[in-house]
Amino acid sequence: MSAAVLAVLMPVSGLGAVASDSDTSSLWTLKECIDYAMENNIDLQQSHNQYLS
């Protein structure tokens, strides 16, 4: 479980740039960053699809 959390959190550090590119007046909270990473993580999406099939 901890490896999965690290896999999600490691790329989060670069997400601030995504937020600042789209709207410089808004800052993302840690929860927003993690939610975005979880929703857009291709590895998690592929794993979920494999689980469902």
Write the layout of secondary structure elements.
Blueprint: H1 2-9, H2 15-22, H3 30-40, H4 42-52
Feature tags:
72% helix; mainly alpha; 53 residues; single chain
Structure write-up:
With 53 residues, the chain is mostly helical. It has a domain of 26 residues. Helix content is 72%, strand content 0%. The longest helix has 11 residues. It is rod-shaped, with a radius of gyration of 13 Å.
The total of helices stands at: 4
Question: Which sheet architecture does the biggest sheet show?
Answer: none
Order of helices and strands: HHHH
General form: rod-shaped
Low-confidence stretches: none
Using the CA coordinates, give the radius of gyration.
13 Å
Please state roughly what percent of the residues sit in beta strands, choosing from under 5%, 5-15%, 15-25%, 25-35%, 35-45% or over 45%. Answer: under 5%
What structural category do the secondary elements indicate? mainly alpha
Question: How many strand segments?
Answer: 0
Mean pLDDT: 75
Terminal CA distance: 22 Å
Helix content estimate: over 70%
